[in-house]
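For practice. Supply one:
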Amino acid sequence: MKDKKVIFSILWLFATLNYLYCDVVTLMDPVKHTSIQFTQGFLLGASILVEIPIAMILLSMILKYQANRFANIIAGTIMTAVQILTLFVAKPTMYYVFFSTLEIVSTVLIVWLAWKWPNGFQNG
């Protein structure tokens, strides 16, 4: 697997599945069920945030080098920062720390690989 586009797409798929499964496990956590009212604005923001890694699965495969590298660095940085910040919102559960660690490692790896991607080398 030397093609960077495939590597990025697989890493984004891995991160996305971990985001989703963490949310599924959270729904099964009886302690996490609270009476918080989610506004339409909050839900729209959450939807946009979740769409970033989903879109990057596709964009990593179709964007040309410069746009691909830039998009992976920006999206990976955003998702890493958001995930780190969520660890400080409340006391995280063990499963949340587990999923967060996998998500952070995968998005940091994406940023690092995109940063190190040699200029002009599609498969390098």
Remarks:
- The radius of gyration is 16 Å.
- The helical segments are 4-28, 40-62, 65-86, 94-116.
- The chain has a mean pLDDT of 91.
- DSSP finds four helices and no strands in the chain.
